[in-house]
Design a protein that fits this description.
It is a single chain. This protein has four helices and three strands; from the N terminus they run βαβαβαα. The protein has helices at about 30-45, 60-75, 95-105, 115-120; strands at about 10, 45-50, 80. Strands 1-2-3 form a three-stranded parallel sheet. Helix 1 crosses helix 2 (about 60-75). The relative contact order is 0.17.
Length: about 130
Amino acid sequence: ELPFHKCGLAHFTTPLVCMNEPVRVFELFTDYEYEQIFGRVADLGMGVELNLWKELSYTDSDRERILRPYRIAKAMGCQFYMGGDSHSPEGFTGKKEAFEQITDLLGLKEEQKFSFVVKNTPEGYDRYKV
């Protein structure tokens, strides 16, 4: 039994998924398939990582293609988190604007923040609210 309340789906829209065609790979899934995947993610209480700052520099068309699965995840009731794999505080340098842009593009609200993050955020860190 994995503690799914602590688990998150990370890196799924980074070039790590497909180095040659990182955008095209997301079109291989139908909306229905994404709904099945993200419905299960939401049911398990897992979070979905928003690891997108490099992708923000893509063309508008490519960026929308990458945001499509996230929009479906949002519609399926998933919760989101950012920076879950940063290896040091320096990993967040210059990322605040990207985080804000991502949440704006997806129309995310505070209640869509991954509950595990909310429960485990120390007092005084409210300035990092989504």
